[in-house]
């Protein structure tokens, strides 16, 4: 059986592995294919693709697009889209700029109570990518305020906390439409991760399907089995596929490569619908 983990991150967004290190880690984990889906950027595709022959691991190219609906954060995976599509690029750039502004405001607030500065955060952020809460968390860990990212998120960076500030992100229905127009395949990431945040109403999930959503990410470390079953049932009702993934971030999260996987037939359907091909050894 081919092991395929279609949702992972590199240090081009908020992971800790370089794209090449991610590919090497995927090989060690026994994966036949891995999806690189950094937040709002595709900068890691070239380096990861160059590592395919060496590692023997196929590369599913993707991106995790930041979205929001009435104050609820939504993450939309886009697979095999045209990375030069102007509408997707414009939305991603607007999100990245807004996230940097949000990060500056949050660091200013946090620095009143914890020993971090903006320069501290920049040490952990990608040069051209989005600067986000994980990079603030890394600065807090380095300052000795917390043991790991999870603690920093729980006590300082959570949306319900006093330091939080919202950033602009695309409406998820519009995002699905833009991804389709760019030749991509939209799959909503961890839609029922209730411990992490508020989640979308079922009516909005149905609206996303009507807009062209291809699948639900169902088996995910942040989903309970009960919520995963809700998504399986909903996917069956709407005739769309389901995926499973690790949402690996390197040392930034405890998630392990191949922790959850996706069947080959689902990946083949993604490739059938997408504009690009999977890069194979």
Keywords:
40% helix; 281 residues; 11 helices; alpha/beta; single chain
Sum this structure up briefly.
The chain is α/β, with parallel strands linked by helices. The protein contains 11 helices and 7 strands.
Structural notes for this entry:
The protein is an alpha/beta fold and 281 residues long. Helix content is 40%, strand content 15%. The chain is built from eleven helices and seven strands. The protein has helices at residues 19-28, 45-50, 52-55, 86-110, 118-122, 133-142, 149-157, 172-181, 202-211, 225-238, 264-273, and strands at residues 4-8, 33-36, 58-69, 72-79, 185-188, 215-219, 241-244. Strands 1-2-3-4-5-6-7 form a seven-stranded mixed sheet. Strand 5, helix 9 and strand 6 form a beta-alpha-beta unit. Helix 6 crosses helix 7. The longest helix has 25 residues, at 86-110. The protein is globular. 49% of the residues are buried. The mean pLDDT is 96.
Question: Topology, pairings included?
Answer:
Blueprint: E1 4-8, H1 19-28, E2 33-36, H2 45-50, H3 52-55, E3 58-69, E4 72-79, H4 86-110, H5 118-122, H6 133-142, H7 149-157, H8 172-181, E5 185-188, H9 202-211, E6 215-219, H10 225-238, E7 241-244, H11 264-273
Parallel strand pairs: 1-2, 2-3, 5-6, 6-7
Antiparallel strand pairs: 3-4, 4-5
Helix pairs in contact: 6-7
């Amino acid at each position: 059986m081919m092991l395929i983990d279609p949702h992972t991150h590199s240090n081009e967004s908020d992971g800790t592995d370089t794209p090449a290190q991610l590919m090497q880690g995927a090989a060690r984990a026994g994966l036949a294919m891995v999806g690189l889906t950094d937040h709002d950027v595709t900068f890691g595709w070239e380096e990861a693709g160059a590592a395919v022959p060496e590692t023997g691991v196929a590369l599913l190219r993707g991106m995790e697009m930041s979205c929001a609906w009435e104050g609820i954060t939504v993450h939309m995976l886009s697979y095999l889209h045209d990375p030069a599509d102007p509408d997707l690029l414009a939305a991603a750039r607007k999100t990245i700029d807004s996230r940097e502004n949000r990060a500056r405001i949050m660091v200013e607030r946090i620095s009143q109570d914890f020993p971090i500065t903006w320069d501290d955060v920049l040490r952990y952020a990608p040069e051209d990518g989005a600067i986000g809460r994980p990079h603030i968390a890394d600065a807090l860990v380095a300052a000795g305020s917390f043991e790991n990212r999870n603690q920093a998120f729980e006590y300082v960076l959570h949306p319900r906390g006093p330091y939080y500030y919202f950033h602009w992100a695309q409406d998820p229905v519009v995002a699905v439409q833009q991804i389709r127009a760019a030749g991509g395949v939209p799959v909503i990431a961890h839609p029922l991760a209730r411990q992490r945040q508020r989640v979308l109403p079922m009516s909005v999930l149905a609206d996303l399907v009507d807009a062209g959503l291809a699948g639900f990410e169902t088996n995910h470390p942040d989903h309970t089995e009960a919520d995963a079953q809700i998504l399986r049932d909903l996917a069956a009702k709407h005739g769309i596929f389901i995926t499973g993934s690790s949402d690996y971030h390197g040392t930034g999260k405890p998630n392990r490569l191949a922790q959850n996987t996706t069947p080959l037939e689902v990946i083949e359907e993604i490739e059938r619908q997408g504009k690009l091909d999977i890069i194979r050894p």
